[in-house]
Design a protein that fits this description.
heterodimer, A: 189 residues, alpha+beta, Rieske Iron-sulfur Protein, four-stranded antiparallel beta sheet, 2 helices, elongated, B: 478 residues, mainly alpha, Cytochrome Bc1 Complex, Chain C, 2 domains, two-stranded antiparallel sheet, 61% helix
Chain lengths: 189, 478
Amino acid sequence: MNETNSDCGCKQAVPAGSQPAESISRRNLLLKIGAGLNAVAGALVGVPLIGYAMSSFARRSKTSWISLGALAKFPEGETRLAVYRNPVSQTWDGDTAEIPCWVRRVNSESFQVFAINCTHLGCPVRWFQESRLFMCPCHGGAFYEDGSHASGPPPRGLFEYEHKVEGGELKVLGGHLPTLAEPLRKGDA
Amino acid sequence: MLRSIALWLEDRLHIAKLFQATAGHKVPQSSKSWFYVFGSGTLLCFVLQIVTGTLLAFTYVPSANEAWTSLQYLNNEAFLGWFLRAIHNWGSIFMVAIMSAHLIQTFLFGAYKYPRELTWVSGCFLFLCTLGMAFTGQILRFDQDAYWGLGIGASIMGRVPFIGAEMVHLMLGGAIIAGETLSRFFALHVFLVPGMIIALLSLHLRLVLTKGINEYPQPGRVVRKESYVAEYEEEIEKTGVPFVPNVIGKDLIFSGCLIIAIVTCALAFGPAGPSGPPNPTLIHTAPKPDFYFLPIFAALSLLPAYMETFLVLVLPVLAIAALVLLPFYSGTGEKSYRQRPMAVVVVLLALTTLGLLAYAGTFTPWSPHMEAWSDTPTPAAYLQGRSPLELQGAILMQSKQCRNCHPLNGEGGLRGPALDTVATRLTGDQLIRQVIQGSGNMPAYGKNLRPAEVTALVAFMQTLRPSHQPAARDSSKH
C-alpha cells in the first residue's frame, strides 16, 4: 500500500516505520520491467502492422501474359481499342478490372500495344484515325501513331506493352498502371 | 428537483470549473471583431461534415463494384439522400473557403507571432488535412473523374525519384487502380485523416486557451519576447471579457449565416456528381478535379515540361515549409498588416495566382476539343466563293481534326492559334512547312497527309483573311 499511496501523489505522508529508499528502488524496478515489457509488446504488434501498411515496399507488382483476342480482330495498318481483364483482380473490383489499351497492327507480323494512359499524368488518350494521332483530353498531349511524342507536355512517348503472338492470339504482359517510375517494359524509361 | 440534478452533475463533473477554464475564459476586448469569426466557422463546418459524413456512411458502399451505384441510390432513391450529399459537398467547399479566410486573417493580423507559434503550426497541418479530406472525398465519389484523378495522383507519385514505383503501389494499394484503392481512400477519408484532424484540433484549441487569442493588432505595437506576455496579461487583466457570453455573439451570427448559406447552396445546386461510372474502358471523358485542385491542374499544363517535376514534388514541400516555419523566422515585430506591406503583397499575389489558374482550369484552353472536328462545322462565310480545291481543303481541315485545336470564328479547340486570319500571318510556303513539320505544340502532319491534301489544305488557309487585310508575303522574294 505504501507504493500505491506515493504513486498517486494523493498522500505525501509516508506511514511511520516504512523504508522509503527500498520502496523507491522497488518501484523503479517495476517501472523498468513494465516499460521494457511494453516495448517488446509494442514491437510485437507494431512491426507487423507497419509491415502490412508498407507492404508496397516489399511486394513487387506481378505481371502475366493476357490475351487481347484473335489476331483477326486487328486489321493491318489500323489502331484499335482492346480490353483485357486485370490478371490480379478481386471480385469487388467491378468495372475497374477492365483495362483498355490501344493495339496498332503495323503489318501482318508486327504489332504495337500502347497503354491507354498518357505519359504526362495518366489520363486516357484517344486515337484519331483521320489525323493518325493520339490526343489526351487533360493537358493536350499528342502522340504519333507509333506512340512517339508529337506535342504538348508529356515527357516521353506512350507506354508500350511487351507483347507476343501465340496460338493465333495477341498477348500482352499486363497488370500494373504504367508510370514514369515503372513503365510497362523493363529498361523502358 | 431540477436544481438537485444540476447540483449532482456539478458535483460529479465540475462543470462550472470547466466552463470557467474554457468557454468562459477571458479574451481581449479587442478580439470582439468580425474578423475573428472564421475559426469558429471552420469548426462548425467540420462538425457538420462529421454528422453528414456519418449519415452518408449508413448507405455508402466502399466497394469499387458498388460505390457508384450506392451514390446513384443516395441521389435518386434514398429519402433526402440527395440533400445529405449536397450538404456534405457544399460543407466541404465552405470549409475550405472559411478555413482559407481564417488562414489569411491570422497571417495578416500577425497572430502566428510569439508566443503562438504552435497554434499556427497546428493550424497549418489542419489546413493540409482538410485539403487531404477534399481530395480523398473526391475519390470516394467513385466516378470517372475519381478514377482518372487517381491516375493523375499515381502519375505524380511516379515522378518521385528512387521510390516512385513503391509510392504508386502504396497509394493505389496495388499495382493498378482497383477495389483496394477505394478501400484505402475510404479508410483515409473516414478514419485516418479525421482522426488526425480531431487530434490537431484539440491541440489547436488548447493552445488558444493557454496562449490566449491574438489581440486586435495596433500599428506600432511591436511584439518583443521579453515583454509581450506581460503586456498581454495586463491587457486581459484590465479590459479582458469572458468569451461566453460577451464575445461569442458575432461567432453565433456568422455560424448561423454559414449554415443557412450551405443549406441554400445545397438546395439550389444539389449534390456533385457522380459523373460517369468508373469504367476505364469508357475513354470518352475529359477528367477534371474538383474546384480546390484546379489551380494545380492548370499549372501542370501551363508550365514548361522541365519545371513540372519540380513544381509538383519540390515546390509544395518548400511552400508548406515556408508556411509552417513562418513564426520561427518572423516571430516578433509588427503585427498589423498596415505596417507589413510585404505580407499584404504576398496574400494578394497568392490569391491572384490561384484565382487566375482556377479560372483557366475551368475552361481548359490547353485541351483539344475532342469532338470539334465532327460537331463544329466550318463557318459558311468561309466557304462562299471558294474554288473546288479550296473547298477540298476546308473539308480536310475538318476531317483531319485541325479544328480540335484550332478555332474558326471562336469555335473549336483553343490549344492552337485561331485560323480566321492565318493568311495574314503566314505565306503559302510557311503554311506548308508548318503543316508538314509542325513545331512547338503542333504535331507534324507530313506522314499523315498526301502532297495533294497539303496543297488543298494550304490553298484553303490562304483564303482565311479579312478582305481589308493583305496576305502575308515573303519579303525575301520581293
